[in-house]
Amino acid sequence: MKEDRLTVKQWDEKDRPREKLLAQGAQALSDAELLAILIGSGTQEETALDVTRRIVDGVHGSLRQLGRLSCKELCAYNGIGPAKAVTIMAACELGRRREAEQGTKRPLMNKAELIWQYYKAKLADRIVEEFHIALLDNSLHLIDSRLISRGGLTSTTVDIRVLLREALLGGAASIAAAHNHPSGSTRPSPQDDDLTRRIRKACEVTGLNFIDHIIVTPDAYYSYCENGKMN
Predict the structure, then answer these.
(1) Where are the alpha helices (DSSP H) in 25-172?
(2) Are 145 and 94 in a shared domain?
């Protein structure tokens, strides 16, 4: 015979995720408990918390790895359908945007590490390559960031004309470029080198100051400027 399982409503109130959050604050909840609030319900065999504990175990407790899961990968967990998967993906994206948000003061981006820190929040979890440019004013404070292209696992195609249009229409005096390597390697490819040269030449013609091109991974970066390869 199946052992009777208590539903969440039958738990002691202090152990229910929603009530626990209201009583103790969100910081008191585990990752699985927070996810359980998001998905709302489990299955006939498992509570929502049982389901989310399996998900957290499946990503080895890494929220970054959770944020990289696709809808299909989330739906592979019993108890997770498309609606619940989309809810989890939306929450992960909000977390990324919150981390990337710099508040009302425009961030200074006059060093490679500062550029990396800004784009790490945007790109570290991406499973395909994306190429962005930071539009900077005369004092190298951020005006805006623009996505120029999105590609595959190992490359993305950048149209220099689109890049220049975004920079000039955005009122940039200087720009910094950044793209991610989903592989985790910071080593630039020959294509990366060629693209950097083409951007530099285009900026020289239009009077833009091209300060750096950063390759972004979660744990490290490569800077063309720091490695003397901007000339």
Answers:
(1) 31-39, 48-58, 63-67, 71-75, 82-100, 112-123, 160-169
(2) no
| Vertex 111: Cα angle to 108 and 116 (nearest 5) | 90
The stretches in the chain having pLDDT less than 70 are 1-15, 100-105
Please count the CA atoms within 13 angstroms of the CA of 123 that sit on its side-chain side. 34
| Nearest alpha carbon to residue 68 among 19, 158, 128 | 128
92 in any annotated domain: yes
* Integer Cα distance of 43 and 223 in angstroms: 49
- CB neighbour class for 85 (10 Å; exposed up to 12, middle 13-18, buried from 19): buried
For residue 84, give every residue at least 6 positions away whose Cβ sits within 8 Å of its Cβ, in sequence order, or none.
38, 39, 40, 74
What whole-number distance in Å separates Cα of residue 7 and Cα of residue 23? 20
pTM: 0.62
The per-residue pLDDT for 165 is 95
Written as one letter, the residue type at 67 is G
Residues 14 and 52 grouped into a single domain: yes
The DSSP 8-state label assigned to residue 189 in this structure reads: P
Phi, psi at residue 197, to the nearest 5°?
-65, -40
Supply the pLDDT for residue 2: 44
